[in-house]
Specification:
Length: 185
């Protein structure tokens, strides 16, 4: 028995077969849905970081995207982070456009218009900043603007300090001061 298929019907079957092949290739290329979507997404959330039960930092933002398998929380929109000392006293406040917090390692990377202000009045401004709870340090390799208690404005490329900005180091510095530095005229 011979079945004659019309050319239009043959073309339709061929198109269907090609479409099915392309679809499976797209699915393989994208990966599994587990890799594509976060485990949690919330608005107005707060992330609390502690060390041995002691509050170290508390971060909130407009939106949080959480990936459990990566131990990562991505904070987006008006990120605010408060840092605390060993006695639980507030030390400094950080503001940024976004931040990534590694919840296993207790590290954070802040991005976009980053400003950290210590309770004593020191202010650091930069575009990116890393915080590591292990060393209780903040650091960046970007350009910084640092304002001292005497309102000196110092600039540089690269910065590291403790979280309350009392022991700081600016790399490649330049700046402006209204005070003399012990130079007799």
């Amino acid at each position: 028995m011979r079945i004659d298929l019309s050319p239009v019907f043959q073309l339709a079957i061929l198109a269907l077969f090609c479409t099915a092949c392309q679809e499976s290739a797209v699915i393989k290329q994208r990966g599994s849905s587990k890799d594509m979507y976060p485990d949690h997404e919330s608005w107005g959330s707060k992330v609390v970081i502690s060390r041995s039960g002691q509050l170290v930092a508390a971060a909130d933002s407009r939106r949080m995207i959480k990936y459990n398998d990566r131990d990562m929380a991505h904070l987006v929109g008006e990120v605010n982070v408060d840092f605390y000392d060993e006695q639980g006293l507030h030390m400094s406040h950080l503001f940024a456009d976004s931040a990534d917090i590694n919840t296993r390692a207790n590290t954070m990377s802040a991005f976009g218009h980053v400003i950290i202000r210590s309770d004593s009045g020191l202010v650091l401004e930069t575009e990116t900043l890393r915080w590591d709870d292990t060393y209780d340090m903040v650091a960046t390799e970007d350009t910084v603007r640092f304002t001292t208690l005497e309102y000196d404005t110092l600039y540089g490329v690269g910065f590291e300090s403790d979280v309350d900005l009392t022991h700081w180091k600016i790399y490649q510095p330049w700046g402006v001061s209204e005070r003399g530095f012990g130079i007799d005229e």
